[in-house]
């Protein structure tokens, strides 16, 4: 009886071990194109993490120290609007992507690429605008809000672009969760590094301009990486 009770646990361990071995075997036997796609996804998610975490962590400081916002209530409001914009737009752009695929018969890979064009060049534009914020002008708060909203609003295209692409190329293998976990790890690490670098750069230069220009350049590079490497083919 004791032996029979232990068997289910032993079988479960054996199954987990088999799944891990199969996953590792798949990763080590992938084609060069698949490996490049994984590296491209890792890079893209890292850039997403860098831009997102830097803005999430430093927007209030930027608005108070560079734009002259002193009211905590206004700081909270202006800091929240760009992220709320992302949440609202995500619902619409997701429907647009589905419409292009289902109704307009666009290729899935072409749809994902279009979404990624917006999700890379859009934030790049917004961050470049932030870098050029006229901090001494009376309209600086409004300008900064518009630039921040552009930077974050276009992030909504990541959901029908990057995140959906991960599931597309993972195919029926069941490794979409693992793949997204790996790329998300890169995003979190790069985001944490971005926060550290932001502190150093702001302390050294006295402004956020270099931070925003650097982040904008990363998004532009991510655009070129996506257009060059991401073929839409299933990982094999």
Automatic annotation (TrEMBL):
Its main location: membrane. InterPro entries: MFS_Na/Anion_cotransporter, MFS_trans_sf. It is a multi-pass membrane protein. Gene3D superfamilies: MFS general substrate transporter like domains (1.20.1250.20). One of its GO terms (cellular component) is membrane. Keywords: Membrane, Transmembrane, Transmembrane helix. This is Major facilitator superfamily (MFS) profile domain-containing protein. The chain crosses the membrane at residues 35-55, 75-102, 114-132, 138-157, 178-202, 208-229. It is found in: Membrane. It comes from the Eukaryota. It comes from Pycnococcus provasolii. PANTHER family: SODIUM-DEPENDENT PHOSPHATE TRANSPORT PROTEIN 1, CHLOROPLASTIC, SOLUTE CARRIER FAMILY 17.
